[in-house]
Amino acid sequence: MIKVGVFGASGRVGKLLLEDLKSKFKTAQIKASIKVNTELLQFYWYLGKKIIEVQKNYKWGSKFLEKLSQDLSKAFPNVKGFSHRNLKNIRQWVNFWDNEKGKQVVSHLFQIPWGHNIVIIQKCKNIDEAIFYIQNSLKHGISRNVLIHQIESGLYNRQKKAIN
């Protein structure tokens, strides 16, 4: 009787094992990426709320955001998310969604990438349209380029007309 190792006589079991391990690893990578994204966006939400709260006490032209950006960038030199532009985006994002209708979908905001969130608030004309694109992104897992194309080609309006 010939003993066959883990990889079998033809290597078939080994190939199946390898495919299974590769698949599990890719799934683990995706889950880790989603978790990191969620935590980062929850931090951005907190940061945006703090920026809005503190800016109420500053005069226009005080360069508060610029100074905050410099301080955070100095404290975390390897982090790109603290640029002046991104802090403005964070503040705009929180302002856009911090209302009754927006609060209903805040948890969904944390499930799509930051780039998607920015595209949505900068290109959508109203909150209903923005909610549509968030739900569409979650449902179909679309890329940012596809999202931009859908918004610019008016998918929301076409879908709305088709329903009516």
List the SSEs and their pairings.
Layout (H helix, E strand, L loop, with lengths): L11 H44 L8 H12 L8 H14 L2 H4 L2 H4 L4 H10 L3 H14 L3 H9 L2 H9 L1
Give an overview of the whole structure.
The chain is mostly helical. Helix 1 packs across helix 3. The longest helix is centred in the first third of the chain and has 44 residues. The N terminus is likely disordered.
Please give a quick description of this structure.
With 164 residues, this protein is an all-alpha fold.
Rg (CA only): 22 Å
* Helix-strand sequence: HHHHHHHHH
Structural class: mainly alpha
End-to-end Cα distance, whole Å, is 72 Å
Shape: flat
pLDDT < 50 stretches: 1-5
Question: Mean pLDDT, nearest integer?
Answer: 90
How is the biggest beta sheet arranged? none
Please report the total strand number as a whole number: 0
Strand content of the residues, in percent? under 5%
How many DSSP H or I helices?
9
Q: Helical residue percent?
A: over 70%
